[in-house]
Write a structure and sequence with these properties.
Low-confidence stretches: 1-5
Shape: globular
Strand order of the largest sheet: 14-17-18-13-12-20-21
CATH architecture of the largest domain: 3-Layer(aba) Sandwich
Distance between the termini: 66 Å
Number of strands: 24
Largest sheet: 7 strands, mixed
Mean pLDDT: 96
Strand content: 15-25%
Length: 480
């Protein structure tokens, strides 16, 4: 099947490739004159067929032996690896992600599916002694995890392949069926992976990949036939979904205004090198992208000079050029939003040290300073190639500044002071503290998620599988 050209890519409905009357054109953020391709939005009837098939398929997927689940996942992983260059190019075109970053995402998805196979083989129960009181003499318990049921998955535009993989792979590993709604801005990469999934022999209905309208997506959120909703996206949307989800389990991986702390003892060169990645990769469009930087006053001037020198070397341009560091933002309206936020920061007393301008969907890498905490660029999620510099004299005060936020996803702490490292780990109100690296560090087998407005639950294959299963105990009594 081909993605680009005039013929839209069909959608994957319960083991069949189908079309619909609702064509979905997929833009190329870097060049609107050259679309990335096209596919279809599912109709209401197609949605209903997919959910009905997922419910029926669950009777088979829950009974699949571990070796079958593991085999399917390993074959999907191998298939993605085999088509690496093709998938990387599609991803780059439809998401505007620089090609080298797109290829890294493809490689991560290879790992995600392979790790899911391994975790499927590690779903262990335990034997629990129950004779802790005299009345339970001669009794013990055996625990085992069972798949929760059909899963509704909704994945975002910024990591359209690997974050979709973080829905599909654990569902297969757990023995659940899944209907995935990919982001409408860039569904073509995961639909192409659907061709690989289709080839591994899972029961029909085990996986459906259906782009759909917001209205149908809302219906999926509230549909009681799904037993778990897993959503990655914006906080405002995610928490509204939870309100409508009914009795199903809900996992939310949402956004933030992630911070890093540069302590007096930090390796400044290393911190700058990593922040140039963490603040500007994929035009800052990551929920853990470095946004707020708190620098100890004793090293602030040296850090600022080195950071600005590095920013000036970043190359903005064609995502398909392997030397490009920053491609476009997802669309022009988002670039315009960030320009307005920068203007607001300046009007409130902030200073633009670099960037601050937009050219279509391209936004220059931007460094701000002296911005009050209530400005949008500090208090909300910028989701842009933008960082804000602030200074501190007391490490505890820096922690308080990081915590003065509605969000709490991850924080990077650059320090060689062991006491400060433990203090940060104990006191930062976030889901993850990354020592001597950036807030945007994530490897796919670690528990990942946030607190406060940043989410509910954890992803990472082992933890996703736990959410997609229910723990059951069998009590065994020995007649006396």
């Amino acid at each position: 099947m081909t993605l680009t050209g005039t013929k839209p890519h069909p959608i994957y409905l319960a083991g069949r490739w189908v079309e619909s009357p609702d064509r979905l054109d997929v833009d190329n953020p870097a060049d609107p004159s050259m679309p990335a391709g096209a596919t279809y939005n599912a109709t209401e009837a197609q949605y209903e067929e997919a959910v009905t098939a997922a419910v029926a398929a669950f009777r088979e997927t829950r009974a699949l032996p571990v070796y079958e689940r593991s085999r399917a996942l390993r074959e999907i992983s191998a298939g993605i690896k085999e088509r690496r260059e093709e998938l990387g190019r599609i991803l780059s075109m439809e998401a505007g992600k620089p090609l080298r970053d797109a290829l890294v995402e493809v490689d991560r998805s290879v790992f995600t599916f392979r790790l899911a196979a391994e975790e499927a083989e590690r779903m262990l129960g335990e034997v629990i002694p129950l004779d802790l009181v005299a009345a339970s003499r001669g009794r013990f318990g055996i625990t085992r995890r069972f798949p929760v049921g059909p899963v509704a998955g909704i994945s975002p535009f910024n990591v359209p392949l690997n974050l979709a993989a973080h829905k599909i792979a654990p569902a297969i590993a757990a023995g659940c069926s899944i209907v995935l709604k990919p982001a409408t801005k860039d569904p073509l990469t995961i639909l192409t992976v659907g061709e690989i999934i289709d080839s591994v022999g899972l029961p029909a209905g085990a996986v459906s990949i259906l782009p759909m309208t917001r209205e149908l997506g809302d219906r999926m959120v509230s549909d009681p036939r799904f037993k778990l909703l897993t959503f990655t996206g914006s906080p405002s949307v995610g928490w509204r979904m939870k309100e409508r989800a009914g009795k199903k389990k809900v996992v939310l991986e949402l956004g933030g205004n992630a911070a890093v702390i540069i302590d007096a003892t930090a390796d400044i060169d290393w911190a700058v090198k990593r922040i140039l990645v963490g603040g500007f990769s994929y035009a800052g469009q990551s929920c853990i992208s470095v946004q707020r930087i708190y620098v100890h006053e004793s090293v602030a001037e040296a850090f600022r000079e080195k950071l600005l020198a590095g920013v000036r070397l970043l190359k903005v341009g064609d995502p398909l050029d392997p030397t490009t560091d920053l491609g476009p933002m997802v669309d022009e309206p988002n670039a315009e939003r960030v320009r307005r936020w920068v203007s607001e920061a300046v009007s409130m007393g902030g200073t633009v040290l670099a960037g601050g301008t937009a050219d279509g969907a391209f936004f220059q890498p931007t460094v701000l300073a002296d911005v009050p905490n209530n400005a949008q660029v500090c208090s909300n999620e910028a989701f842009a190639p933008l960082v804000v510099l602030s200074t501190f004299s007391d490490f505890g005060a820096a922690i308080e500044q990081v915590n003065d936020s509605a969000f709490g996803l991850q924080t990077g702490v650059f320090t060689n002071d062991l006491g400060h490292a433990w203090q940060a780990f104990n006191e930062l109100e976030v889901g993850g503290v990354v020592m001597n690296d950036i807030s945007s560090y994530r490897v796919d087998h670690m528990p990942y998620g946030g607190v406060k407005d940043s989410g509910l639950g954890r992803e990472g294959l082992r933890w996703s599988i736990e959410d997609m299963t229910e723990l059951k105990i069998m009590v065994v009594a020995q007649p006396q």
